[in-house]
Amino acid sequence: MRQYILRRLLIAVPSLLGISLVLFTVLALAPGDPFAELATNPNVPPEVAMALRAKFGLDDPVYVRYLRWLAAMTQGDWGFSFVSRMNVDTLILQRLPTTLYVIGSAQLLALLIAIPVGVYAATRPYSIFDQIANTLAFIGFSLPTFFTGLLFILIFSITLDWLPFVYSSDIKATGIRWLFEHIRQAIMPVMVLGLFQAASMTRFVRSAMLDVIRLDYVTTARAKGLGQPRVIVKHAMRNAMIPVVTLVALQMPAVFGGAIVTEQIFRIPGIGSLLISSILSNDTPVVMAVTFVFACLVVLFNLIADILYGWLDPRISFR
Amino acid sequence: MLDTELRTMIDEVKNGRMDRRGFVKRMIAFGLTAPMATQILAMGGVAMAQSPAPYKPTKRGGGGPLKLLWWQGPTLLNPHFATGTKDQDGSRLFYEPLASWDAAGNLCPILAAEIPSIQNGGLAADGKSVTWKLKPGVKWHDGKPFTADDVVFNWEYARDPATAALTIGVYQDITVEKVDDLTVRILFKNPTPFWADAFVAVVGCILPKHLFADYKGAKSREAPNNLKPVGTGPYKFVEFKPGDLVRGEINPDYHMPNRPYFDTIEIKGGGDAVSAARAVIQTGEYDYAWNMQVEDDVLLRLEKGGKGKTVYSTGGDIEFIALNFTDPNTEVDGERSSMKTKHPLLSDPAVRKALALLVDRGAIQKHIYGRAGRTTASFLNGPDQFVSKNTKWEFSIEKATQLLEEAGWKVGADGIREKDGKKLKLLYQTSINGPRQKTQAIVKQACQKAGIDIELKSVVASVFFSSDVANPDTYSKFYADIEMFQIPMTQPDPAQHMRRFHSRFVATKENKWQGRNFPRWVNKEFDAAIDAAEAEVDPVKRAAFYIKANDIMWQDTVVIPVMHRLKVGAATNSLRPVLSGWTNDTDNIQDWYRET
Question: What's residue B221's pLDDT?
């Protein structure tokens, strides 16, 4: 087991290097300039923009810049933002709690809806409940989040005036009220993201469950006289969860990576909005750091998923 | 009735020997209109008898929170590093300059005890120095006194190239010296008629010497206070999250009486302009939103809700179409649009004039910019004393057709005009931006009717405005026949705005296309007018030179002004923001209050 993890981690190194190389090259080749805004400002002489480019090393060849970045990264230095003139790690850590809270809650909500609904629907396939769940799921994942987001704002903020639509990372209340305000402003984004996730996950859980529930060992368990809840939860669900775990594990990096569109709509100061604003202002060190961390997380959670398989199904061995 | 007499009269008003009304009457007798007379008086160095912004609150604080919504949040809080308006706006809450600009483009003292003028001895008659008197008793947020040393330090800090300050252009050519603890003198190398650049408005925000002295030059980025401002402003720093939130609280020791009105202030960033307008005008969640680049129709619809409204401030920002005087399709020495070529079609003045007649500014205003634009024929649209009354525009397809016919451009078999085998086909480029693409369509339609074929091109803004030498699609390379964008006027003075068309600033391969004269227009008369204006200390004559320069550009059709753009903000009904088109929205933040 330990050997397996070690081997997987070692394999990860070259793939991460490859990813970083591709990311860096693509970013370097992309047109644009972090100091573009200065170009039309008559107050700033052109030499200043040139000097800034030189100071931040933008005029060096791509491979020199990549090696410099790589050397810094291995020493734990994530880079220095051109736009904010501060360290990228502070910038990212500042955004992380909000992203974890909002996107994490959304994922949790999705699981809380998807698993019971999916399992229940699978136990009674083609019943009224199954039909309704399926239809709703279909509608749910057909509607993009930017649409449902705007719809929610129009209904709950503008027409009904119940919920705020500008997310504030800094609420000036204390105690219960602070908690209440935090929950209140997160309702809409969490709903938008959570329902979207839940919709696709429900269908996934249902089909995984349907595959398992017809197998002989489930019939055996029933024949032994075990009750329906016990058969479903202890025998069928555990096996049905294997594909679901993969799906959830691959979603986990997104919890850290944020949701670009939803964060933009609700002005949630998360990683996603940091990424998009950095891309728009050509702040390459930030884009590089966010995407690279994202890549690391994908690799890590893949490993975690593989280890979880072994726990869910002891027949799977680590080699 | 020329110089001497006018000067004597102005002096009489200054000394109080003649009253303002008497002066205006005498001027009217000479055939000048009353507003023009007041302007001449103002230019002569007498402050206009303006009504200072009525500030009603009678005590400091008590106004609750002021919530501002910027759809691009400030990303840093050191005014010398500010790349865009958003950063300047954020820093301006905490840091202050010696003076700020009001709506009419006049100076208002902030950290200065008074505005320098000839009569108070602040301005040297030769235009080579300015002496600022500082307000006594001003304290930094940490309690240390504000003195002339701080002012001098900011000059040293910004002018050091190793600091990499973006304000270096303002400070590199001047010398600042301390006269005494509360007086500084700025020395210029040449007579400088526009002396109010250094230490004024956002580029003039002053950092405390005691916190930044160790971080001048290459170490500038390490200064802990880059992210934790300690200034003299109406609000003290509380919290900063780049791109998301800036928060401040009232400064109980602020140096202006009864100010500020609000107890806390915040700038929330992110999102888009339309939803920002909604959050202010429709739901009232926020008090003020900046830069409402939203179609007027949408704003009008939101305003029906009645919680807020849009507010406009007039500056000199101009949206225009520039015409290329060189040939973008011929390469000379590895350079397209080279100065060694001449544009095959646009070098004909008749074609340029016809194009100007084909831009339907009325329709563009009505259908696109609405209340946020004014039609104009001039490139220079403010302040008032510099605006030419000699230019005019019209939209007429018939006149354009006639002009082209007379110049020998005949309609060919395909409906496109041609002359000597050259077809009237133009490539029209701009940045990707809703209103710009609509304007392109309006112009293209009119041109088609007149037999000019226009091909439209739009480039992503981050590329179009980039200084990337390798990219062919930047506005300064101008590999197109005509192009359109906006040039903002960042100060109430035309010097920088007009200088860009001087022939020594032509954008070429040699200067890596950093020159600002991208139409590559060369006109000796214009150059002479600009050179003369820049050396002219007499405000009346100087204004005349700029008016002349503007008129030459108009006669020669170097650019076709499309719209004089106003700054648009959104405010809740009770808020009384103090805004100016000549400066950032937060430049007079200490005067904002709420009507109860």
Answer: 82
Q: Does B485 touch chain A (CB under 8 A)?
A: yes
**Bridging pattern class, strands B422-423 and B99-101:** unpaired
First vs last Cα of chain A: how many Å apart? 8
SS3 A181: helix
Domain spanning A95-312, CATH class = mainly alpha
Range 49-78 of B in CB contact (< 8 A) with A: 65, 69, 72, 75-76, 78
**CA of residue B210 relative to chain centroid, distance:** 32
B476 phi-psi bin (left φ>0, alpha ψ -120 to 50, beta other): alpha
Task: Supply the pLDDT for residue B48.
Answer: 46
pTM recorded for the entire structure: 0.84
Who's near B571: CB < 8 A, 6+ residues apart? B280, B287, B288, B289, B308, B309, B310, B311, B577
End-to-end CA distance of chain B: 52
CA dihedral B557, B560, B561, B563 (to 10 degrees): 160
β-bridge pairing B183-188 and B129-133: antiparallel
Half-sphere exposure of A195 toward its Cβ, with a 13 Å CA cutoff? 21
Side-chain half-sphere exposure of B34, counting CA atoms within 13 A? 4
Contact state of A168 with B272 under an 8 Å Cβ cutoff: no
d(CA B152, CA B402): 61
Which of B117-131, B268-282, B565-579 shows the highest mean pLDDT?
A: B565-579
Q: Nearest CA to B583 among B493, B495, B496, B516? A: B493
Q: Does B279 sit within 8 Å of A170, measured CB to CB?
A: no
Give the number of C-alpha atoms closer than 13 A to the C-alpha of residue B90, restricted to the C-beta side.
36
CA distances to A10, A23, A250, A288, A296 from A16, in Å: 10, 10, 17, 13, 7
Residues of chain A with CATH 1.10.3720.10: 95-312
Share of chain A above pLDDT 90, in %: 13
Q: Which of A8-17, A46-55, B289-298 has the lowest mean pLDDT?
A: A46-55
Q: How far apart are CA A137 and CA A146, in angstroms?
A: 17
ipTM above 0.90, yes or no: no
Nearest-angstrom CA–CA distance, B572 and B166: 34
Torsion of CA A167, A172, A173, A177, to 10 degrees: 0
Q: In angstroms, rounded to a whole number, what is the distance separating the alpha carbons of residues B91 and B88?
A: 5
What 8-state DSSP symbol labels residue B190?
S
Confidence category of residue B46, pLDDT binned at 50, 70, 90: very low
Q: Which of residues 272-301 of A touch B (CB under 8 A)?
A: 273-274, 277, 280-282
Selection from B99, B82, B91 nearest residue B195 by Cα: B99
The pLDDT of residue B49 is: 42
Most confident of A39-48, A265-274, B584-593: B584-593
Cβ partners under 8 Å of residue B83, min gap 6: A35, A37, A38, A83, B75, B76, B166
Which residues of chain A are within 8 Å of residue B212 when distances are taken between CB atoms? none
A303 with A6: CB under 8 angstroms?
A: no
Model confidence at B95: pLDDT above 50: yes
> How far apart are the CA of A162 and the nearest CA of chain B, in angstroms?
11
